[in-house]
Amino acid sequence: MKNIVILISGEGSNMKAIVGAAQREDWPRRLEARVAAVISNQAAAAGLAHARDHGIPTEVVEHRGFASREAFDAALAAAIDRYQPALVALAGFMRILTPGFVAHYAGRLVNIHPSLLPAFAGLNTHQRALDAGCRFAGATVHRVTPELDHGPILAQAVVPVLPEDTADALAARVLTQEHLIYPRAVAGLLQKA
């Protein structure tokens, strides 16, 4: 059985999409993969309750309790490694990871980002797309590398930018696409693992 560990910081809507796909058996039966744990850097992350409600172990590694990023990442890696993951999926995990952490999970660490990378890496992607006059926006699943939001692209989904769009309206349309492409990309990676 291939284990997936999902990292979240909040509601975990993309985590819910991955859990749902795995539990509905939307993935190929031969995949033999499961979400082994959901880990958050925030004890109040709403997604933890969803994971527990679905029988998935949860852990919290509070980043505020560590003197450095390296110390936090070491503790986070220790928690992740207990589940022997074939894949670690960042799903709204709002921490920048150190190069050592990224190297430890090289080839097994993926993220979803709410823009059509390489455009608009970082935060405030929807407002930045509107401000730039983009006609299209979207989401990208990518491998994680030490450079923020610059890893190899695995999947993308495109949505039109409508004349009346606000950042929130655009974000909502992009999020529906994230929930479709992330579980598919995760399943595809696990088939190759």
Give keywords.
36% helix; 7-stranded mixed beta sheet; 193 residues; Rossmann fold; alpha/beta
Main pleated sheet: 7 strands, mixed
Uncertain residue segments: none
Helix percentage range: 25-40%
Rounded to an integer in angstroms, the radius of gyration calculated over CA atoms is: 16 Å
Content of β-strand: 15-25%
Identify the strand order in the major beta sheet.
3-2-1-4-5-6-7
What is the distance, rounded to the nearest whole angstrom, between the alpha carbons of the first and last residues?
Answer: 11 Å
CATH topology: Rossmann fold
CATH class, named Alpha Beta
Architecture, according to CATH?
A: 3-Layer(aba) Sandwich
User: Can you identify the CATH superfamily?
Assistant: Formyl transferase, N-terminal domain
Instruction: Please tell me the total number of domains.
Output: 1
Please tally the helical runs, counting DSSP H or I stretches of 4 or more residues: 6
Tally of DSSP β-strands? 7
Shape: globular
